Amino acid sequence: MSKLFDGSRRSILKLLPVCMVGFLVPRVAVPGPRAKNTLLPDILHLALAAWNQSEKVSPEEYLEGVNIHDYEEIKVSEFNEKQMIIVDGFVLCKSEVAVLATIASRRAIAV
Amino acid sequence: MVVDGNFVAANSHFRGQICIVGGGVAGIVLANELQDAYEDIIIVESGDEHYVPEAQELYQAEKYPDQLPDPMYSRMRFLGGSSNHWQNNTSPLSPSDFEKRDWVPNSGWPISFSDINPYYKKAQYYCGVGEDGYNTKQWSSVLNKKDEVEESALLITAIAKASSPPVRFYQAYGERLKSASNITILTNSNMVDIVYDSSDKRVRQIDIVSNRGGNITVSADKFVFAMGGIENARMLLVFNQKYSDQLGNQGGNVGCYFMEHPTPRAAQLFADDVERLEFYKSVQFKDRTVVGFLSLSEQVLHDHQTTNLRMPLIPKDEYTLSDGISSSHILAESFARHSLPDNFSDHLYNIVGDMDMVIEAVARKTFGIKLFEHANKITGFQIPMMMEQTPDKNNRIYLGRAKDRLGIPKVSIDYFVSGFDKACVWRSLMVVAQEVGALSLGRLKVLEERAERLWSNQLGFSDHHMGTTRMSSTPEYGVVDENLKVFGVKNLYIAGSSVFSTGGHVPPTLTIAAMSIRLAEYLKNV
User: Fold this and answer.
1) Dist CA B259 CA B64 (whole Å)
2) What total number of domains does chain A contain?
3) Residue in A with minimal Cα distance to B368
4) Which positions of chain B have pLDDT values less than 70?
5) Cβ contact, residue pair B449, A18, below 8 Å
6) What was the ipTM of the complex prediction?
7) CATH 3.30.230.10: does it fit domain B2-128+167-261+389-416+464-523?
8) CB-side exposure of A11: number of CA atoms within 13 Å?
9) For B387-407, what is each residue's pLDDT tens digit?
10) How far is CA B293 from the centre of its chain?
C-alpha cells in the first residue's frame, strides 16, 4: 500500500489542489496578503510581503550593496547583528529574505 | 521491616525518633541517608509496595484545569512514588535559578547553587545515572562529539543523563530499608490528622487511617512531610484549618506558587548539516543514556530579561513537521466554532501545499494505513522545550468542598501559563534563531502563528509539581526556611519539589534527591 502512490502521482496530487485554490482563493477566501499573485510559490510571496513590511529599500537595492562573494560571511554577520526577518515562521537573515523577495518581485512582473 | 497498616491491631501506636510521611523519592532518599544516624525511623506510606487502586484514588482532584494532566494519574501513590513512572531524565539546576532575578517575579531562593551543588554527586547515584557529572566539555570528549555552540556567548549545550532502564526508587533502595532493624515502613497508612502543641510549637503525633479503616497513631521527635508537590500542600492546608495557620501558613502561602514545566512545541530546527548536531542525539553510555540539549547562556537571560528553556532536538519526519496537518486541525477547530481563523488563507495554503501529508493523516487516522514513504523521512528537528514557569501566587492548590473516602477535602487547582512566561518563550526563541543562524547550524522556525493551539490543547506538561510549600527567608513569602523547616513549627520539615522557590527548566528529581540528602545532613545535627 505504501507504494501505491509513486512520485508522479504525488506531483499531480499536489498540483491539482494548488491550481484549484489558486483559482478559488482570490474569489472566496478572506483577502490576505497573498490574495494577489497567487501563482507565485508561497514562500517567495511571503518573503516579498515580509520584506516590504519591514524594509524601506527594495530587495534588489539591498542586494546591490551585498558582495555576493562574501555571501556566507554576510549571512553570519547579519545574524550576529540581529538583522533578521521572519518569513512564515522561519527566522532568516536579511540577505536571504532579500534574495527570495527579489525572485518573487521579478516573477510577479513576469506573471 | 514492612508493617502493613491494614493488618495492624486497632488503635496501635508507633513511636520513632523521626517519622517520614511519604515513601517516594524524597522519603526513600531521606530514610537511606538517616539510617545510620537515627535509632528509630518510621516511614508512613499511603500505598503498598505495589500499586493499589484504593490508595491511588485518594489522589483524585475535585477541580483542575482541562489542559493540566489529571492529578489522579500524573503521580503515583505507592512506595517509590512517582519514580514508578518517571522517564528518569536528570540535570542539575543552574546557579542563576537560585538567584533573585529582577525581571522574574518572585524569583530567588534563600540558598545558593553552592549550597546544593555538593549534594548533586550523591543524588546522581540515587538516580542511577553514575556520579560523573554534567560537564559539557567532559562529555563532549568522552562521547567524541563536538559541541557546536562551545564558543557561543548566547547558547550552551547542557547535559541530561538517564538510567536505562529508569530507576524505581523502592525497587532500587527498598531492600536496604526493609532489612534495616531501625526502620519501620508502615504501608497502606494514610495520615489524616496531626496533634500540634501550640504552646511548644511542636507536632506531637500524627493520626493515621489504614486503607481498611483501622486507626493508628505515630509519635516522633521530628516529622518530615515528603508526600509530593501537591499532597504536601494539601495536607498542610488541612492542618492549618485546624490550627489557625500556625503551620507555615502565616503569610497565606501554603498551596500558592504552584509550578509545572509546560512543554510547548514552539519551534522546529531545520539543519544545514544534521551531522553537526550529533551531540544532541541520545547515546547509550554504559548503563545509561546521555544527551545534549540547548539552553540559553546566563548572559542572555540577563540581557534579554527572559527565562530559560531546555531544548532537546528530536529528529522528526515530514509527517510530524507538516504545516498542512497543523493547519487542518486549526481550521477544523474554527469550523466547529462556526468561525474562521484570522489567517484563514495562510492555513488554506498550508493544507494545499502539504496536501499529501494531509491525505496521509486522513489515511492513518481513518483507515489505519500509511500511503507515502517519504512521510517517514527525517526532515528536521522538533523542539519540545521545557520552559521555566514564573512563580505566581494565583497558581495554587487549595481545598475543595468534596472529600475523599477518608474525609479529607479533595484538592482543587488554579493554574495558567502567564502572558509574561509566553512572551519569554518567544523572546528566548529569537535569540536561539539568531545564534543557530550565525553558527550556520540551520534555521529556526518559530511557530508563533500556532500560538493559540500551542498554549492550549497542544501544550504538554511534565508532571513536575513544584513550589506549593516554597522555601523562603521569611514566612511572609514562603512556607519553609532554608533548612526546610516549616515556619512556626520546631520539628516539622518538608522534602520534595514543593519546596522549590523556582522550578528551573530541567526535571526536578535530581534536585529533589540532592535536597533530601542536604536535609538529612541537617537533621543529623539538630
Assistant:
1) 14
2) 2
3) A1
4) none
5) no
6) 0.82
7) no
8) 3
9) 999 999 999 999 999 999 999
10) 18
